[in-house]
């Protein structure tokens, strides 16, 4: 199957352009997408990468060759594509490689209503059919409509968060030359916000830093700008602007677990007794705070497909991940970093305290952050860790190995794509967290030697 087997991942399509992903492949995927989903109409959007326009146009040719009509939304963030799919009631495709380097591109696909398409829900069938269609072009039969959805997207998000009573705020936003530079001005328009933009110029070469806010080195410019400018808050978006990272007024990074708990509390005030989803490596504080606010916490594996599936199954109003993905029932169960940012701005602006105090109420434990170790024999490393912690805590293997002891826990799980083990540890005090973290890393390190 050549390149198609390599670029079709568990949840999306991603590869190097043009070596692995080119226009003939995109055209074949467009035709296959229509055939597999049975779509009569499709909405398409793309990010700012140089390869995104030609790839999107090739996909559109393929979709139209199967007599599907196409709504071309043009430039957009991934959550704008979800808005388009949900509001128009159409399957959709977003051309982006998120935070990956400039030479990459890809596709995120969904059914009508922003329902994700993954390996188990149609992506493999699209891959297999596309492999048969590469190089077999046909004349277009469906229509093409260009539609600017940016204002509709911005207006819709503002209906989901009450921002009418917020005080004036000084906000620094680092768009990382990604799609936040396109969407933030539209969403913030008319709000009492003094905006300091960093790297809003759309540039798929990412000349300033990677558009990946989970890596601390990519937050340095934002942190400096917040402190030097006396800002109330800093926000960093990734390349396709579906993730948002928060910086407080002191220039310190705010844990996505604290943001998850804060937004959960706000959603529970709106929907008393509702279910909140969190993955298994968010802080113990998240389920505690959810229960304290009358909600029902549900724990899932890591990964957006598991979060979205559990949200649909339980009717959860909100879900959060350690990676700064935030999911909303009111947004078709899809993730939106921008919507999470509006919740944080509302929570900050409705009262007078600084952000560090606001989020301090949602930060209860000391966390290691995610630590990656290169390990060839992952199974042996996990076996040795199990052996070392036998009798010291409760074992749980929902996703890798989670061990929970008195006032501490850790999770050690294998990467799906690389020979890595990922460790997250947390404890009520920093010394305990450090001891647990170092003990596990020492065991893993002995296996990798």
- As a percent range, the share of strand residues is 15-25%
Distance between the termini: 36 Å
CATH topology of the largest domain: the name is Alpha-D-Glucose-1,6-Bisphosphate, Chain A, domain 3
- According to CATH, the homologous superfamily of the largest domain is Alpha-D-Glucose-1,6-Bisphosphate, subunit A, domain 3
Instruction: Report the major sheet.
Output: 7 strands, mixed
Task: Round the Cα radius of gyration to an integer and report it.
Answer: 22 Å
Give the overall silhouette.
globular
Residue windows where pLDDT falls under 50 for at least 5 positions: none
What CATH first level of the largest domain would be assigned?
Answer: Alpha Beta
Give structural notes:
The chain has 449 residues and is α/β, with parallel strands linked by helices. The chain folds into four domains: 146 residues, Alpha-D-Glucose-1,6-Bisphosphate, Chain A, domain 3; 94 residues, 3-Layer(aba) Sandwich (Alpha-D-Glucose-1,6-Bisphosphate, Chain A, domain 3), CATH 3.40.120; 105 residues, Alpha-D-Glucose-1,6-Bisphosphate, Chain A, domain 3, CATH 3.40.120; 83 residues, TATA-Binding Protein (2-Layer Sandwich), CATH 3.30.310.50. It is 38% helix and 23% strand. It has 15 helices and 23 strands. The strands form four sheets. Strands 1, 2, 3, 4, 5, 6 and 7 form a seven-stranded mixed sheet that branches. Strands 18, 19, 20, 21, 22 and 23 form a six-stranded antiparallel sheet that branches. The mean pLDDT is 95.
